[in-house]
Amino acid sequence: MNQSKFWLASNSPRRREILTWAAWHLEKVSSNVDEFMLEMETAEQYVRRIAELKSRVKLGKASACGFIISADTIVALDGKILGKPKDSQHAFEMLVSMRAGEHWVMTAIAIRHTDSRIVQQDLCKSQVKMRNYSDEEIQRYIESGDPLDKAGAYAIQNPEFHPAKDFRGCIASVMGMPLCHLERQLRLNQNYDWTDWPSICQKKLEYQCPITSRVIAGEDIG
After folding, report:
1. Residue 2: Cβ-neighbour burial (10 angstroms; 0-12, 13-18, 19+)
2. Residue 148: exposed, middle, or buried by beta-carbon count in 10 A (0-12, 13-18, 19+)?
3. Dist. CA 139–CA 134, nearest whole Å
């Protein structure tokens, strides 16, 4: 068991669920960040900036030493950022715009030791190809409520909708937390006990990942 203490600076229940796959001492802390986009900011710059801002959250004075982890996920279609839908109609429009086409999902992570102001960052980019689902399928999916709190209005792992036909990159990243990218950044810290996130992730997702060893080795994927 990893003896480090971790705080997840994210309001995403899915990210918290993913990080509970390992036996970490994990606590959640709210990250109330204004997620507006700056003028002339690219999608990559935006997602990195928001992840870093989340990692600057302040903990209570009595908190033990450990690591604050934050992340932000966006969908980029033809250079345009698709965030969380405002309502059901907006979700419908997003899903129609991505239908039978390809887009990028970018998840930026930020890590900060509680004793430091220095923030480590990483970015995972995955290319997702959507299938040619029908308007009726979109409507049923929206009625389930699942897309309304998701970037791009979909969850790649949804068992009923199955929105993606194919993808290149990291499934865990599309779900909101690129675990191999997280692990390779944490391993740069001397006071971190390594976690076998690559094996944990593949076991949980029942997926033989083709990029795990390359990511851990430090290769830029995407």
Report:
1. middle
2. middle
3. 9
**Which one, of 108, 124, 132, 134, lies nearest residue 51 by Cα?**
108
Predicted confidence (pLDDT) at residue 54 exceeds the cutoff of 90: yes
Active-site option among 72, 115, 135, 193: 72
Whether 72 is catalytic: yes
Q: Report which of 127, 125, 128, 118 is spatially closest to residue 185, judged by C-alpha positions.
A: 118
Hey, what domains does the chain have and what are their CATH numbers?
Answer: 5-216 (3.90.950.10)
Nearest to 147 by CA among 73, 84, 93: 84
- Residues 89-124: pLDDT tens digits? 999 999 999 999 999 999 999 999 998 899 999 999
- Condensed to tens digits (0 to 9), the pLDDT of residues 115-136 reads 889 999 999 999 999 999 999 9
